[in-house]
Please model this.
Amino acid sequence: MAFGCHLVQHQECINSAMRNAEMICQEKNIKLTKLRKRVLELIWTGHTPQKAYDLLTRFQKEDPAAKPATIYRTLDFLQENGLVHRINRLNAYIGCVNPNHKEPYFLMVCLHCNNVEESTHSEYRDFFNKMINHSQFQCSNKVFEIEGTCQNCL
Model:
């Protein structure tokens, strides 16, 4: 499983993600609706990248009237508020381990099993900041995907 979560601790991962979401939304004075909570919970349930239509299928078991636009709007909200990351290579979403972290994120995506590890290591951050400062470049996306092979697949 991504992020080193063990099955015994898995429910705590979900609970922690939900507490973080509540706190962030309260700080920003925005609503964490029942729909937003449920989609975030569905994303965290698997600890693996989740595609929008897979989330829709799972959500429609609870609300058969749910439409793709509902899920996409919810995912946009969650992403805009730092609660999930979109993994471009997989066209999927994964929960953000540390949504309060404002520095660049590095997502290491395994090309074999699609496991995703999130890193905010200071050496990566320092390298990135030096690079953009040297180039006088204003970065709008601070999430980077690094593709390779995870330790389990080596």
About this structure: The two ends are 15 Å apart (CA to CA). The first strand starts at residue 84 and ends at 87. The mean pLDDT is 87.
